[in-house]
Amino acid sequence: MKIKNLELKNPAILAPMEGVNSEAFIRLCAEKNAGIVSTQAIEKKEEIKFYDLKKLQKIVHKAGSKLSFQIMTNKTETALEIIKEVEPYVDIIDFNFGCPLKKTLGEKKGGYLLLYPHLIERLLEPIIKESKKPITIKIRLGFDKERETFLEIGKLAEKIGVSAISLHARYVSDGYRGKADWEKIKLLKKQIKIPVIGNGDITKAGQAKMLIEQKYCDGVMIGREAKINPVIFQQIKEAIENKKEKTITNQKKLMKQFLEYYLEQERKNIHQAQDHLSWLVSRHKKAKEIKKAIRETKEFEEIKLIIDNM
Hints:
Blueprint: E1 2-3, E2 6-7, E3 12-14, H1 23-31, E4 36-38, H2 53-62, E5 66-71, H3 76-86, E6 92-97, H4 102-106, H5 117-130, E7 135-140, E8 142-144, E9 147-148, H6 150-160, E10 164-168, H7 182-191, E11 196-199, H8 205-213, E12 219-222, H9 224-228, H10 232-240, H11 251-264, H12 270-280, H13 287-295, H14 300-308
Parallel strand pairs: 3-12, 4-5, 5-6, 6-7, 7-10, 10-11, 11-12
Antiparallel strand pairs: 1-2, 8-9
Helix pairs in contact: 1-2, 1-11, 5-6, 8-10, 11-12, 12-13
């Protein structure tokens, strides 16, 4: 799969997730063969410091992945300010037009802009002319069933020079409820020539393989499943390549790896580490008691002991 001039090693991509996509998690997903890894959505220039992009770029590129930086704004000037700072360190600039959070919608950002495709066009056109990097967008089907705009926005995006479009096949009003409508992803792919990346309810390598091989989309974006099982990227790659040897998820190994990377970061927040480790242990046979033990720790050394004794 190619996005403009970028050749991806794997059409499986890490979704931008607020409060999830820390540097350590991004590194873990890159090393598990995600084709693209992404920051969480950044809304203003001051938030860029959440990431050490120079260091992150080296780590991600060493793993063979591409680094995408997601922006969520309704102002071209804000976006250009951010892009000027981050462009030397990232491969792709992505725009969030799908966030369903009440606060975001109240600020007329994210999923709110799906109501007004002309505002998306007005926001992006100068950016596409100005930026040297591929510009991609992440959208939903529309604000709700009565206001479905994904086809209009897809055609508009192609017209103004957007390099790829990710479609989360739910409406903004759905939040994360209900079932993602993959048929709508297929419909968008039929209508436009730029790469379409399918998102929503993809939890198994076989599903990703089917969606790509049956031309529902060119690539898949994995969010919630990646939190629990970052190995999903490697598993999708193996499925697409018809590999007989299948990678098995080893929760203990993943947790150790994540914690090692997390402790290499300058900003050490034990609560963030506890969140990640609780997600990673979700499918372990003793998940409930391990999660409880991790949540009760106050020191990283205690967490290490719990993982060692799993």
